[in-house]
Amino acid sequence: MGAQTSSVTSNQGLNDNIKPPTDTQHSTAKGSVDQCPHFQQQSSQKTTYVSECPMSGSVGNSDVNPLNMMPPANQMPAPDQPFPLSTTRITSSIPKVAEKEENWVYPSPQMFWNAMLRKGWRWQDDALAPADMENIVRMHNINNELAWLEVLKWEALHANECMNPRLQSFGGKAKDYSPRARIRNWLGYKLPFDRHDWIVDRCGKRVRYIIDYYDSEHVDHDTLTFTILDVRPAFDSFGAVWDRTRAAWWRWTVRENYDATEANTRNELIKTAKRELDNKKETLRPSQ
């Protein structure tokens, strides 16, 4: 539970020149790759967001889905787009609160491209190829898969009351730093470059989780590790306080074995998430 290093592997690698525009006041490193295309807002533009990617703020549109603060997906190519992008969307392993059993769906490379343009990004400024967009989307997807697996670690403390928690809604709060992030910053650590709040349905009980995204300050070219996730229940109920107190106690009392176990678990989660997403993508490939 807690901090989780996120990584992704790719046969084609990551183009180091990719630098999606981020709010420089809140980015912890020059080359940060944001988890979602919610980049610095242009004062002369109306803010719009990409479907299924958690965001915060008002978009001033009656069609916005209140569960994820997104308008309908835009899958149309941009007028000056230099190459075609896939519109295939991968279904996540994250269960959704709905009448029928279904999971949340990730944005396509085309949706990411459109969202980046709406936030002021100029593709002419970067040496960008179609494979780079595929890599960015893959990073986004695996980050969310790993975040959900971290949530499930916490939810395992309540397996006796709920065996199938689901993600009800989510939103981004990049500029609204959590108390934990602020305290770490006062102690000399860097601020997270992004924050998401996820609302989990624990069989009828609403539980809020905070996810802080920290820049690892380098990309490991073997594992492409780039982001550290800090996932924990918000301090907004006695139950959450008790869960975090228990987890902290366990970490300190079994510290000798905790780091090694956490590292092994992290690697297994990364492999599992990547394998599942790649299998889904391979299954959908003929329909493109």
Automatic annotation (TrEMBL):
Reactions mediated catalytically: holo-[cytochrome c] = apo-[cytochrome c] + heme b
InterPro entries for this protein: Holocyt_c/c1_synthase
MF-aspect GO terms: holocytochrome-c synthase activity; metal ion binding
CC per GO annotation: mitochondrial inner membrane
Keywords: Heme, Iron, Lyase, Membrane, Metal-binding, Mitochondrion, Mitochondrion inner membrane
Protein location: Mitochondrion inner membrane
Residue ranges of the region described as Disordered: 1-48
Heme as UniProt keyword: yes
Enzyme Commission number, as recorded: 4.4.1.17
Pfam families given in the database record: Cyto_heme_lyase (PF01265)
Top-rank taxon, per record: Eukaryota
Biased composition (Polar residues): 1-15, 38-48
PROSITE patterns, A to Z: CYTO_HEME_LYASE_2 (PS00822)
Function: Lyase that catalyzes the covalent linking of the heme group to the cytochrome C apoprotein to produce the mature functional cytochrome.
Family indicated by similarity: Belongs to the cytochrome c-type heme lyase family.
Protein name from the UniProt record: Holocytochrome c-type synthase
Organism listed in the record: Rotaria sordida
